[in-house]
Amino acid sequence: MCPEDPQDDQTQTYLPLIEGTAVSHYVIIEKIGAGGMGEVYLANDTELNRRVALKFLPPHLCRNEDCRKRFKREAQAAAKLNHPNIIHVYEVSEHQGRPFFAMEHVEGTSLKDVTGDKDLSVERILELGIQVCEGLHAAHEEGVTHRDIKPSNILIDSHGRARIVDFGLASVVGSDQLTRTGSTLGTVGYMSPEQVRGDEIDHRSDLFSFGVVLYELITKQNPFKRDSEAATLKAVCDDIPHPIARFRSNIPDGIQSILDKALEKNIKTRYQHADGMVSDLMRLKRSLDSGLSTMSAVTAVGRSSRTWWLVAIVAMLAVAVAVVATQPWKPETIADKPHKIMLAVLPFENLGNAEDEYFADGITEEILTNLAKLSGLGVISRTSAMQYKNSEKGLRQIGEELGVDYVLEGTIRWDKSGDVNRVRIHPQLIEVADDIHLWADRYDAILSDVFEIQSSIAEKVAEALNVALLETERRALTQQPTENTEAYHYYLRGKQYFSVQVGRGDYRDIVKSCG
After folding, report:
1. Rounded distance between C-alpha atoms, residue 406 and residue 281, angstroms
2. Which of 131, 205, 238, 363 could form a disulfide with 201 if both were Cys (CB 3.0 to 4.6 A apart)?
3. What is the per-residue pLDDT across 453-505, written as a single tens digit (0 to 9) for each?
4. Which residues contact 349 (CB under 8 A, 6 or more apart)?
């Protein structure tokens, strides 16, 4: 059993981690955070020349061998999580017998700072909610439950993207609990009722905790915070939160129902999986984007039997205020601004015969066109991207020159050696600032499946970047321009000749090449 009292074991002492201290191949720069479950240090990775965050388990929790083994096993499980909305854990190790894990260091702020700032737009709240739930879903699919979801454990990086931290102390399905049965692990005010009671918990506890975070993001109020810790814990188990309309008007009606389901005391009637919450948030965002969502125009406080025309006037004024409040001249922070993700589709490298260059360029352009159809993405034009064909510039430099956050690159091989033509495509989505691969895949299919591959790549890129697709956009991606692959082949060849010859005005060569 892990000792819970810091005085339980004084046989092991640990040297202070000061500036310049070497920890494996890391060098400590400074201490950047501390809490009940650990100390966080900014460090330099001398092997890869990058900054990382090192989190150490407090001495009073790691002096017991069982605690160290459990921490290491659970942190190793967290290290296998690979999702754009989760901070990457690089490795788990020990320093002078003290367990630690190295993780990605993110420049940005946390939702804790955001919740104390001005009101976020409804669109931004939904955007962040979708991103966090996507990250939770990825973790839960791997059997990892966070157990301490709260605003300070959700960072907003420099690109405006939500990133979940502190998965190193999570519980893993099939492993022993880090704390003994009957004890609690979490933060008062964000724990689920089952956490407060010391019951066995699973991934649904995270969904309750994030429901609290989402409520606080909207209202600036923790729904269960009371004058004392005991009263707060009792409220988590017994009290029903006030309607959000009490604190903020002009909120889509659907948000309240999402919060109600996330904050269910009964774990069986709560959201059972994070993807269910994602679906509801996305559906609400789509309806809001299309103007179909109804808004709560008056607060729940002071409602009376006013005449219908007064309510109508209030509703119209609320809509007018909402319109004015979302005008582009309004100053916004990174966290407040719905971020339009900028992407460049670089020319895919042709691994086949030189004569197939037009095929690789044509497929690249078709993928670019599909991505450009998505309203949540800003895609650099083909002309701007094509200048980097066969370029030796690094992705970071290309990203800076084009003003993009991400690039999609890859390779294409058209195999005509067999009875049936095959196409092999290997796309890679990369975050240029940190050179992180967010998504990659390998497609090997017959040529007639090339349209399906193009659609799949666009959908997977959108998913990796947390871009919600409208139903019309999803349908558009599935539409095939033709079922005749030979005609498509001539179409790509014609586009290639057109792009080369039209600049010289030699249209006769275009006609000849397609004849």
Report:
1. 25
2. 205
3. 998 999 999 999 988 888 778 888 877 766 665 666 566 666 555 555 444 44
4. 360, 409, 410, 411, 412
Q: Tell me the two tokens of residue 273.
A: 């999986």
What pLDDT was estimated at residue 377? 87
Of 5, 8, 148, 157, the catalytic one is: 148
Strand arrangement of the beta sheet that strand 154-157 belongs to: 108-110, 154-157, 162-164
First to last CA, the chain: 80
- What does pTM read for this prediction? 0.56
Distances from the Cα of 95 to the Cα of 55, 62, 98, 286, angstroms? 11, 12, 5, 49
Give CA–CA dist 263/269, Å, rounded.
10
Query: One-letter amino acid identity for 28?
Result: I
* Sequence-separated contacts (24+) of 27-33 with Cβ below 8 Å: 28/54
Bigger pLDDT: 238 vs 174: 238
Q: How far is residue 219's CA from residue 151's CA, in Å, rounded to a whole number?
A: 14
Per residue, the 3-state secondary structure of 272-325, as one string, reads CCHHHHHHHHHHHHHHHHCCCCCEECCCCCCCCCCCHHHHHHHHHHHHHHHHHH
| CA atoms of 192 and 478, how far apart (whole Å) | 41
- Whether the CB-CB separation of 165 and 153 falls below 8 Å is answered with yes
If 0-12 CB within 10 Å is exposed, 13-18 middle and 19+ buried, where does residue 266 land? Answer: exposed
- CA Rg value for the chain: 27
**What is the pLDDT at residue 392?**
82
Percent of the chain scoring above 70 in pLDDT: 74
Beta bridge partners of 350: 412
For residues 294-309, average pLDDT: 38
Note the pLDDT of residue 429.
94
Dihedral over Cα of 149, 155, 160, 161: its sign? negative
| Dist. CA 485–CA 454, nearest whole Å | 14
Note the pLDDT of residue 8.
46
Judge whether 78 and 170 are in contact, CB under 8 Å. yes
Structure tokens, 318: 């609320």
Residue at token pair 């454990």: 153
Q: d(Cα 246, Cα 302) in Å, to the nearest integer?
A: 9
- Reply yes or no on whether 8 is catalytic: no
Query: Residues 496, 477: contact at Cβ < 8 Å?
Result: no
Q: What are the tens digits of pLDDT across the range 97-118?
A: 788 889 889 888 888 887 666 7
